[in-house]
Inverse folding.
């Protein structure tokens, strides 16, 4: 069988993030620090998925503002537009072209089975079609770039599995165009809500989330108010303490080792852990906040970066879409 993917331009890595508001530590340590690190080893493309966000952010002003602000956050965290392609999904119309081709190969049952769809009201008559089709667009995001590595959180593994199903079906039905993809999950465990350690940190519960541009006083206050445990159960570290320790580990391993030794010898005072974590987080976030302030002064440059990013993305996506169109009998 002809391999139509041969000699097509590609990236090694592709990932996407929804522009749903300010970045918090869950996004930072769960995804972005990993992206920054991957830039050193691979050719990467990072996409702000505003079409996806359209399924949950109905307000135009808000969507636009969120998109601008997350791009600045990504730059502040260290995504380097000279090394990686940073772009906004809706600037590259190829995403929608491939999306429809894929939608025609995807079954309703496969989409209705997705956990995220069910959680977002999949059983209601009024649920949006965009919510149902969300993973099809995600498959297009990934496969347009020939990316074989996709850094995602655990909650996206099901969507990746569906991406594989779609690409195999396409290849089998129309000819080999899409290479296999593999999820890269981060080592960092899920970052939990500081006030409610049974839930993930989320921007919808700001009192339990630390945002990357929170003032230092706020950061310390939020950490101070974090839920701990009674210290009675010495069998195993509780999720709340594990969460604080995990955050400390992400900021400063030496401090983490100190606190872990104290914990293991049953000498850890939670007050001390919180003071240490507050300090380390402030230290860690300081350059990010400073960089964010600088980027906020350079709006024109940011626009230029996105313009160039979309151009580079398109130059990779276009040839693959052209072949996909031909293989399915369009144009
Ligand atoms: N669905 C992903 C999330 O909510 C975001 C996303 C969209 C994505 N397209 C992608 C992630 C492509 C990886 C690759 O986190």
């Amino acid at each position: 069988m002809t391999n139509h993917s041969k000699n097509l331009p590609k990236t090694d890595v592709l990932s996407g993030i929804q522009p749903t508001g300010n970045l918090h530590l869950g996004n930072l340590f769960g995804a972005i620090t990993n992206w920054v690190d991957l830039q050193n080893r691979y050719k990467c493309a990072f996409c702000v998925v505003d079409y996806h966000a359209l399924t949950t952010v109905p307000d135009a002003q808000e969507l636009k503002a969120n998109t601008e602000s997350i791009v600045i956050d990504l730059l502040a965290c260290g995504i380097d537009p000279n090394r990686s392609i940073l772009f906004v999904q809706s600037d590259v119309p190829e995403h929608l072209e491939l999306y429809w081709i894929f939608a025609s190969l995807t079954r309703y049952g496969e989409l209705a089975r997705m956990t995220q769809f069910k959680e977002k009201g999949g059983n209601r008559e009024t649920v949006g079609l965009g919510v149902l089709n969300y993973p099809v667009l995600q498959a297009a995001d990934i496969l347009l770039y020939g990316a074989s590595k996709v850094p995602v959180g655990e909650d996206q593994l099901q969507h990746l599995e569906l991406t594989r199903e779609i690409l195999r079906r396409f290849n089998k039905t129309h000819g080999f165009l899409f290479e296999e993809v593999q999820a890269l999950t981060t080592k960092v465990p899920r970052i939990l809500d500081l006030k409610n350690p049974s839930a993930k940190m989320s921007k919808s519960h700001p009192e339990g989330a630390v945002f990357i541009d929170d003032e230092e006083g706020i950061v310390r206050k939020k950490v101070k108010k974090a839920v701990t445990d009674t210290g009675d159960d010495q069998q195993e570290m509780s999720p709340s303490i594990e969460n604080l320790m995990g955050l400390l580990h992400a900021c400063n391993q030496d401090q983490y080792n100190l606190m872990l030794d104290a914990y293991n010898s049953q000498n850890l005072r939670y007050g001390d852990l919180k003071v240490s974590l507050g300090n380390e987080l402030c230290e860690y976030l300081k350059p990010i906040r400073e960089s964010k302030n600088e980027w906020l002064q350079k709006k024109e440059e940011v626009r230029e970066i996105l313009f160039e990013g979309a151009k580079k993305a398109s130059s990779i996506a276009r040839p693959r879409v052209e072949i996909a169109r031909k293989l399915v009998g369009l144009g």
